[in-house]
Write a structure and sequence with these properties.
2 domains; six-stranded mixed β-sheet; pyruvate-formate lyase- activating enzyme; 571 residues; alpha/beta
Length: 571
Amino acid sequence: MLHKVMGTREELLEAERGTVRKDWGGKIRIALAYPNYYHVGMSNLGFHAIYRLLNNFEDVVCERVFLPEDKGTVQGGLRSMESQRPLADFDIIAFSISFENDYPNLLTLLAASRIPRWSSERNPPHPLIIAGGVTTFLNPEPIAPFVDCFLIGEAESILAVFLDVYKRYSDKQALLEALAAHVPGIYVPALYDVAYHLDGTIAEFRPKRGAPEKVQRVGVEALSYGDTCTAILTPHTTFQDTYLVEVARGCPYGCRFCAAGFVYRPPRFRPKTVLQNCIEEGAARSKRIGLMAAAVLDVPDIEALCREALDRGVQLSFSSLRADRLTPEILDILKQSGFKTAAIAPDAGSERMRRVINKGITDQDVIRAAGLLVDAGIPNLKLYCMVGLPTETMSDVEAIVVLCKQVKHRFLKASRTTERIGQIIVSLNSFIPKPFTPFQWVPLEDVKSLKAKIKHVRDSLRRVANVRVHADVPRWAYIQALLSRGDRRTAQLLAAAHENNGNWAKTLKASIINPDFYVYRERPLDEILPWDFIDHGINKAFLVEEYHKALRAESSPPCVVGQCKACGVCK
């Protein structure tokens, strides 16, 4: 077991360098790189899981690398956290990427390590550059020219076979061809040629030298094999010494904007006995346990599990609370855990829009949940909403304002009994169309229009006491949409932005590539999309039907595993 470390940031970093005690001799040396700062990477449970998995292999030594907060610290080249070895000394650099906005940081890390950015320019002794994480099995194409191979899917099902093949080859080309041919879930960009029509759309995505026509996303059938928990506890993260436990993967509700609800199908819940072991280990290491999933309150026996945790003297936190799933028992657990802020995601203001996105909750669900939370002694509330959703009108945007005022009214009424009133934070984000969702064909709404909608919500709630609006910046939503919807040619824009020190305005203005082609263009339903070579098991006809139902503002029922074959994942 990796030990808990405490102290100042400097003491923490020094202590963590000793958490892996394997000798380097004769072992595969892997640098697990998170393309963001330390406190962000160490807040990511997936990063912890891969770190633990890799170090469980006897012939592997895995050390961590993060984006340096002070660029002046990498004058001699970027180094690993555990042993302070140069990144270029590793056999493999494995990038764990959770967000498209971290794509530019991949280039920053390679440049800081003096490693050529383009895959075609690297040969031994350069490290093999691999990448995984949810964004890479949505659309890896914008960073495809920089990466030697991608692991498409859940690492538990890929790593052992990947490492077995890796050990057999010293020649990079032979290794990549063997990986593509013999390891499910491996995507080697260099083994695919892309042809384009005159209008810039993809004409053909053609494999060569034994690569599969489709790369099948690999997953685990059940979560009974073990656990996914915090590997190293640290106070220097978003969660501050919270022991994180993954309780489920996927989500049964099928919100049409949410990629995780589609690419992690079918939804799977970790068995009670496994979670009990996780809680026991977590209670021995920390006073707070965080339960992580897209639908925490849907986990079977969740209330009994939480009671067991409370009986062990720990406090609990939840990654998500669905408004229509709150029960008196859950509210009491939140109260005993000392919750000060709870988050609910209406996602849209009007019930029509929530039918469009298949959210499955009503205004009354949201208002009732707000009152119950305040009644339970939780003074602050966070509401997540989006603007720019398909078919949205200004009437739907105004409905966000109306709903927030209704929540405030219920909030105030409940607060009178406690004689204190907290704050309502409205988190307002621009909708980004994502691959493998029913909205993958729709464009991003114009940045000017998004700004106007955000301004309307801000201005309308500005004078409402105890209500604050936090909104994203639409021009950054534009960049995220570009990286989410782009094809392989988008890599040229990433490289140019790197050369321009992250100045995207300058980059886009000077580019011969038209970024609006990727961001603002509605895709025909029969167009070959940049990510179509990945097979998640979902029938495209199902996504098309869900898109049409969205346009008709019709809801679909939640996923019932094993009892429905509509999407194609359950055979």
